[in-house]
């Protein structure tokens, strides 16, 4: 049908979600934020009093909940058992626990199944950590988006609203910590696929990165 799948991976705060959303919009594709799915599982675990290390309880949880991403004009809505949790999954509490929740095999197996199903018909821009390496190894275009940890922390800092304010150096520390967990976990660690194009967004604007990816995608169509 002439459509391709685009995989965008990289560390926290590299601009993946904004870039992926804009690329999807330009191509008329559907954007899938896989981090949002891991966040939704983490939120569900928090609410059920399940700690991020409780492997068996997490397995049971992930197999019993219903997660859905609903594309919309205002951006993507995340539904957990039918409830809109789009905002609730962005709290610091979830952010600090999500990496450990995402390290469990049962959690990943279940979410990867959902992700592959979403991509089956092509025309998907999917962002995450293991999309090019594990979820969609056949994706026609793979981008690995990086940026210095300082710039990533600063970007996140500027997104925080007043009551969320934490010192920039603490934010930088937390991002570095999450990178470390994501890069060093046993199952599907964050790594660059051999056939991915590496883009460093440290000194680029969002729109410049989007334009580069759109150029690349045209060569694959
Ligand atoms: O993309 P975002 O920062 O929202 O992702 C939150 C966390 O979810 C990541 O730090 C990572 O631990 C996990 N994740 C993952 N695999 C993906 C997407 C996200 O392990 N494909």
Classify the fold: give the CATH topology.
Rossmann fold
Q: What would you call the structural class?
A: alpha/beta
Order of helices and strands: EHEHHEEEHHEHEHHEH
* The CATH H-level homologous superfamily: P-loop containing nucleotide triphosphate hydrolases
Strand order of the largest sheet: 2-6-1-7-8
Q: How does CATH name the architecture? A: 3-Layer(aba) Sandwich
Q: Report the uncertain regions.
A: none
Radius of gyration: 17 Å
What is the first-to-last residue Cα distance?
10 Å
Query: In terms of quaternary structure, what is this?
Result: single chain
Number of domains: 1
Share in helix: 40-55%
What's the total helix number? 9
Main pleated-sheet profile: 5 strands, parallel
DSSP strand (E) fraction?
Answer: 15-25%
Tell how many strands the DSSP assignment holds.
8
Mean pLDDT: 96
**CATH class membership:** Alpha Beta
Name the overall outline. Answer: globular
Which cofactors or ions or other ligands sit in this model?
cytidine-5'-monophosphate
Task: Outline the structure in words.
The chain has 221 residues and is of the alpha/beta class. It has a single domain (5-214), classed as 3-Layer(aba) Sandwich (Rossmann fold). It contains nine helices and eight strands. It has helices at residues 16-27, 34-47, 55-64, 92-101, 105-119, 131-135, 149-159, 168-184, 206-220, and strands at residues 5-9, 30-33, 67-70, 77-80, 83-84, 124-128, 141-146, 197-200. It binds cytidine-5'-monophosphate.
